[in-house]
């Protein structure tokens, strides 16, 4: 049985094993099929699930705030965390090259696989089942869903820390940009006084910068003994 442990973690057993196999298949693995179509579908389904959830969770929030909150949950970083909650990387079908390139740990690959998985559940079991599973995972991974928590700006936070402790602002350098135009992946290095503190990848420079800032903050908290 394909990814039996994963299906137990999801609380859902696929009737059509081809669907879950497709959801877990990265484009590097085979030319016959991959999870990109399911990823496209899952992204739309998750957008609606999260949008509806936030609509009811914050009944007084205006449209602009709801859009910001949804964007803070429906993104690569959040889906990467949800994928890791399921240990999704363990079950992926990757090419040997991608395997050697630590593909099982890449946020872009993990987040895409999570979207594809939700897309596959939606196709087979419908919206309510996809919603039930997605919201359970979201609540486990993000126990404090508040505007303050969701709208954290790691770049601003990092700048405040570096100005206070180093008297400078952090520098974000583009290390690489790979992939076709419609699926670019950017790698950003975070430097303070020309010392590199972290590297992060994302589907946009902004996403990579935010993740790099978050990783740098974690490192500085230990280095500077910050709370």
From TrEMBL:
Give the matching PROSITE patterns.
DS_RBD, RNASE_3_1, RNASE_3_2
The cross-references to SUPFAM superfamilies, in alphabetical order and at most eight, read: dsRNA-binding domain-like, RNase III domain-like
The residues that the entry says bind Mg(2+) are 39, 112, 115
Its quaternary structure? Homodimer.
Protein's job: Digests double-stranded RNA. Involved in the processing of primary rRNA transcript to yield the immediate precursors to the large and small rRNAs (23S and 16S). Processes some mRNAs, and tRNAs when they are encoded in the rRNA operon. Processes pre-crRNA and tracrRNA of type II CRISPR loci if present in the organism.
EC class name = hydrolase
State the name under which the record lists this protein.
Answer: Ribonuclease 3
Which positions fall inside the RNase III domain? 3-126
GO MF assignments: double-stranded RNA binding; identical protein binding; metal ion binding; ribonuclease III activity; rRNA binding
**InterPro entries linked:** dsRBD_dom, RNase_III, RNase_III_dom, RNase_III_sf
Q: Which UniProt keywords apply?
A: Cytoplasm, Endonuclease, Hydrolase, Magnesium, Metal-binding, mRNA processing, Nuclease, RNA-binding, rRNA processing, rRNA-binding, tRNA processing
Please list the cofactors this protein needs: Mg(2+)
Q: Where are the transmembrane segments?
A: none
Where in the cell is the protein located?
Answer: Cytoplasm
């Amino acid at each position: 049985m394909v990814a039996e442990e994963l299906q137990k973690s999801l609380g859902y057993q696929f009737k059509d094993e081809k669907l879950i196999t497709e959801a877990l298949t990265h484009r590097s693995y085979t030319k016959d099929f991959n999870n990109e179509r399911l990823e496209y579908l899952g992204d739309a389904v998750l957008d609606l699930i999260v949008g509806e959830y936030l609509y009811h969770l914050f009944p007084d929030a205006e449209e602009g705030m709801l859009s910001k909150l949804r964007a803070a949950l429906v993104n690569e970083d959040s889906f990467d965390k949800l994928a890791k909650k399921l240990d999704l990387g363990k079950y992926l079908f990757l090419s040997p090259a991608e395997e050697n390139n630590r593909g099982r740990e890449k946020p872009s690959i993990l987040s895409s696989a999570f979207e594809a998985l939700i897309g596959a559940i939606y196709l087979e079991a419908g919206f309510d089942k996809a919603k039930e599973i997605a919201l359970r995972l979201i609540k486990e991974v993000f126990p404090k869903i508040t505007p303050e928590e969701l709208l954290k700006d790691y770049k601003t936070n990092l700048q405040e820390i570096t100005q206070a402790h180093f008297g400078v602002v952090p520098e974000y350098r583009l290390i690489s940009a790979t992939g076709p135009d419609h699926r670019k992946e950017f790698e950003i290095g975070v430097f303070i006084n020309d010392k590199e503190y972290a590297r992060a990848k994302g589907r946009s420079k902004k996403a990579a910068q935010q993740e790099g800032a978050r990783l740098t903050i974690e490192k500085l908290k230990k280095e500077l003994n910050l709370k």
